[in-house]
From TrEMBL:
Residues 330-341 have a biased composition (Basic residues). It holds the Pfam family SET. SUPFAM superfamilies: SET domain. This is SET domain-containing protein. InterPro entries: SET_dom, SET_dom_sf, SET_domain_protein, TPR-like_helical_dom_sf. It comes from Recurvomyces mirabilis. Residues 6-161 form the SET domain. CDD domains: SET_SMYD.
Amino acid sequence: MEKGTAETQLKETESVTRQYAVRPVHSKGQGLVAMSKIRKGTRILAEAPILKVPRHASDLQAVSSIIVKQLRTLSRDQQTAFFELHNAHGKRHDPPLGIMKTNVPPLGSDSYEGGLFLTASRINHSCRNNAQNTWNEKIGCITIHAVKDIEEGQEVPITYLGQAAPYAERQRSLRNKFFFDCKCELCSLPQVKREESDGRQQMIQDIDESIGSSAFGGGIEIGLKSVRVLLELLDQEGITDTSIPRAYYDAFQIAIAHGDKARAKVFAERAYAARVIAEGDDSPETTKLKRLVKRPTEHLSIALAPLLPQQPGKMARALISGCGCKASHHRSAIPTKRQRQKMQDGLDTRTAKSLRF
Ligand SMILES: C[S@@+](CC[C@H](N)C(=O)[O-])C[C@H]1O[C@@H](n2cnc3c(N)ncnc32)[C@H](O)[C@@H]1O
C-alpha cells in the first residue's frame, strides 16, 4: 500500500475526523462501521433525502416515472451512488424502483412520503441494534443516534422492525418485508440462549400490547408495575432504543390519567431524557416532551382521572399474579394502545413502524 500519497492521507484524515465509514460487513454486504468510539447519545449522522416518493401508491409505473424524473435532477456523482445502492428486488422491478423499494424509509411514522438517503441506506438491520433512526421533520433530515456506547470497528445497525418479537417471527417479517434472512448477533445466538431471549421478547410484545388495558382498567399501581416489568425485560434484552422513552411515556400517561401529577412529572422527565439520547434535543417529539415536563397537566389524559377505577380489576389482578396467558382479558379492557394514541395530543411516541416502504 502506498503510504503517504494524497489519497491515503485523505483517507487517514477522514477516519480520524469521521465517526463512521461505509465498509463491507460479514454476510450483509456493506454497512456503517464506527471509526472511533462513539458514546451513547451521540448524533452519528443527519442526512437530507435526495429523492422523495409517495409510499402507498398502487400505480408502480407512476412511481417509477416520479423516480426517473427526480434522478435526472441529481448530480452525476449522486446518480452513480444511487445506482450502486443495494437492490433486494432483483428483476422484479426496474432498477430505480427496486433500489427505492429496498432503501426508502417513511419520512415519519404516518407519512405518505418516503425518502432516499445515500449514506443511511447503507445501514443494516440488527435485532439488537445499537443505533436509532428517526425522521426529524424540524431539520428535514434522518438522524442516526448511538443508543449504546459503540466501540471502534463495531458495526452500527438500526432496527428495521417496529417491535420486539421472538426469533421465528422476526425472521418471517424480515423475509416478507425486506427479502433477507437476518444474520444479526441476536439471531445468531446458540439455540438455548435464543430460546431464553425468545421468552423475554414474547413477554415484551405481550406487555407492550396489553399495557393500555392493564394501565387504564386496573389502577395506577398495576399500570406502573407493568411498565416496570417492561423496562426490566428491555434491559435484559439489551434494548436501548426508543422503546425506553415509549415505556416512560406510557408510565407518564398512566400517572397523569390517574391524577398523580408528581409521578407524571418524573416520568415525563425520564421519557424526555431517554428521547434526547435516541433523537437529540431538536426532534419534534423531544420538544413536545419538554413541554410536558414543564406542564404535565396539558396532556389530555388528565381528563380521564375521574373515570378510572381505583381498585385493580380481574384483568389487572391476573397481570400482577402473572397468569401469563394470551386470553382476551389482557387485551379487551377499555382503551387499547391504539385508542390511547388517538386520544393523545398529537404526540407521536413511535418512530417509523417499518423502515422501508
Ligand atoms: C438497506 S440495505 C443495507 C445496506 C446493504 N447491506 C448494502 O450493501 O447496501 C438492506 C440490505 O442489507 C442486507 N442486510 C441488512 N441487514 C441484514 C442482516 N441483519 N442480516 C443479513 N443481511 C442484512 C440485506 O441484503 C438487505 O436487503
